[in-house]
Design brief:
Elements: E1 4-10, E2 14-21, E3 26-33, H1 40-58, E4 65-69, E5 72-74, E6 79-82, E7 90-92, H2 94-102, E8 106-110, H3 111-122, E9 131-136, E10 140-146, E11 149-150, H4 182-185, H5 187-195, H6 205-209, H7 219-227, H8 231-255, E12 259-263, H9 271-284, E13 295-297, H10 304-314
Parallel strand pairs: 1-4, 4-8, 9-12, 12-13
Antiparallel strand pairs: 1-2, 2-3, 5-6, 6-7, 9-10, 10-11
Helix pairs in contact: 1-2, 3-10, 5-8, 7-8, 8-9
The protein binds beta-D-glucopyranose.
Length: 326
């Protein structure tokens, strides 16, 4: 197993990267803007240039690179089939594009899968198995981890928990399904849930915190408002949390998890979101009277994505696919 790797986390606004040791220590890190408007070749040039600069700055050899990216990721052949963050990319052989430029093997996996690997091995999931980790932000991603290893499924598509339908006749989702979990629990549903219950008015905490500019409203601001007792903000988190609880019931009924880890920006709302989720789990999970899995917040913060991608790349199972080995 490699003892060092570069991890890259391709997000919707930024690409974070870091050089990681096998014990998870970050040796060096950096960030560039996401080339969301670029075609894949040009984007690969930008990412490779930043990665090469970071490696040169750290002055160490990097035997392998791990890349996490949202969407349908073919882990075996290193393909981004589709990604919500990179609308121009279809069937993009990202691992090969980067490997060719950097002269280093590249492993690719889903962004939430990468975060989950890091949390399971170094964060809130240490000593627990199986674990399901969810990343809640604009969308919801997830992963099943057993004994520290991510279940990628046949192709790399496992863990798309945000697209588990919890309302068969619910609103349509961009993925083609209806009533997906991420339509009830992501960033926008929490904002919309607040605005649908109250009028935007001077004197309300969210109005004052955004100087009246509704476009600046975020779940973080609503969490602050909830902390000051705003009942509409509390209500919006409550409804989102209950829907999250429905999703968690389905997941533990399927996998019998030891622990749920909730990460991503929205998870910072803490118990505002997680308490209602735990309550629903406690009322509805089939094994509730025997074992109720804890629902805990992720511990690693914004570095989890690139740390997990690097740890995944270091795994010794790597090497079968010649296509992405230079
Ligand atoms: C995507 C996932 C991704 C998640 C978080 C979802 O909408 O389907 O692939 O992991 O967002 O970025």
């Amino acid at each position: 197993m490699a003892t060092r790797a570069l991890g890259i986390d391709i997000g919707g606004t930024g690409i974070k990267m870091g050089l990681i040791r096998s014990d998870g220590k970050v040796i060096a890190s950096g960030e560039i803007r996401s080339p969301t408007d670029c075609q894949p070749e040009e984007a690969a040039d930008l990412i490779a240039r930043a990665a090469a600069a970071l490696i040169a700055e750290a002055g160490v050899a990097v035997p392998v690179i791990g890349v996490g990216c949202a969407g349908l990721i073919g882990t075996k052949r290193g393909i981004v089939h589709t990604s919500p963050n990179l609308p121009r990319w279809h069937e993009t052989p990202l691992a090969a594009l980067l490997a060719r430029r950097l002269g280093t093997p590249v492993r690719l996996l889903n962004d939430a899968n990468a975060c989950a690997v890091a949390e399971a091995r170094l964060g809130a999931g240490v000593g627990r198995s199986p674990v399901i980790a969810l990343t809640i932000g604009t969308g919801i991603g997830g992963a099943v981890i057993t004994n520290g290893r991510v279940v990628t499924g046949r192709n790399g598509f496992a863990g798309e928990v945000g697209h588990m339908s919890i309302q068969a006749d619910g609103p349509p989702c961009a993925c083609g399904n209806r009533g997906c979990l991420e339509l009830f629990v992501g960033k926008q549903p929490i904002i919309d849930g607040y605005l649908s219950e109250t009028t935007w008015h001077i004197g309300s905490v969210p109005y004052e915190l955004t100087s009246g500019d509704q476009k600046r409203l975020t779940p973080q601001i609503l969490a602050m408002a909830a902390g000051k007792g705003d009942k509409f903000a509390i209500g919006s988190f409550q409804r989102a949390g209950e829907m999250l609880g429905v999703g968690l019931c389905n997941l533990t009924n399927l996998i019998d998890v030891d622990c749920f880890i909730i990460g991503g920006g929205i998870a910072q709302a803490g118990d505002l979101l997680l308490k209602p989720a735990r309550d629903v789990l406690g009322q509805q999970a089939i094994a509730r009277d025997v074992f109720l899995p804890p629902v805990v917040q992720a511990e690693l913060g914004v570095e989890a994505g690139f740390v997990g991608a690097a740890l995944f790349a270091m795994e010794d199972s790597w090497g079968a696919d010649r296509e992405v080995n230079p």
